[in-house]
Amino acid sequence: MTAPVTPLLAADVIIRPQSAPDRVLLIQRRNPPHGWALPGGFVDRGERVEAAALREAREETGLEVALEALLGCYSDPARDPRGHTVSAVYVATARGEPRAGDDARDARWVDPADPGVPLAFDHALILGDYLRYRATGEVAPLRF
Amino acid sequence: MTAPVTPLLAADVIIRPQSAPDRVLLIQRRNPPHGWALPGGFVDRGERVEAAALREAREETGLEVALEALLGCYSDPARDPRGHTVSAVYVATARGEPRAGDDARDARWVDPADPGVPLAFDHALILGDYLRYRATGEVAPLRF
Questions:
Q1: Per CB distance under 8 Å, which residues of B are interface residues toward A?
Q2: What angle do CA B114, B119, B122 make, to 5 degrees?
Q3: Domain ranges of chain A
Q4: Is 0.80 topped by the overall pTM?
Q5: Looking at domain B21-135, which of 3.40.980.10, 3.30.460.10, 1.10.3720.10, 3.90.79.10 is its CATH number?
Q6: CA proximity to B72, closest of A27, A22, A48, A96
Q7: pLDDT for A93-121, tens place per residue?
Q8: Any coiled-coil ranges, and where (chains A, B) (predicted)?
């Protein structure tokens, strides 16, 4: 069989502090596309998506996070200017304070309803879905 | 940037008839790995995951399905003997009777609690998660 060509796969994490669940963590990206984003990155072949989410959170923020739920799979072909990338986005909690690392230049707790920084990718859409999840428990709508 | 190497991405669909929601549709695979499986297949680059689920359901069963929810993302590196493939699995409903097509040799409504046929991949695990979803509304647990 010829190897199929499928979109790249990433995992991103919405991290809220256990002590202040109305905040989420954004990182300032070191590499293009620039701007602020949820911690996350590409899934390695041989790695579970959940494990990639934990690893990327650790590498970019220094936090050991606890995943709580899968918010959704984001797959708009235009969502990443580097090429079609599908992201599994998880909601997680963490204790402690972040330390920006790896591909992150800075890390900051923000109000997801008003982050106050320019967001990369479709992360504004994702934060909108997260606000709805926080209010209702409903995960991201399916999109076509 | 060197293109990252990530797992392949697939979409699979648990289809239940509107008239008999205690049944789900399995197809008999034409290609290895042989056995019975949920309708599904690889996501094309440039295609949304939801669109891939609809397309694969149509190609393999002739049914136009309505996606209802994302059950989970299945990413055990050993779940597909052809190589690491992550699958987004949706729950859907359909009207009408299936017609096996494309990569499917046959299509059959089964009781998900007792399919009576050998299942390929991790589709027995997925059907277990689906039974829990049907009973409780809870989606698949995260797995590490």
A1: 1, 3-10, 31, 42-51, 54, 67, 69-70, 72-73, 75-77, 82-84, 86, 88, 90, 139-140, 142-144
A2: 105
A3: 21-135
A4: yes
A5: 3.90.79.10
A6: A48
A7: 999 999 988 788 999 999 999 999 999 99
A8: none
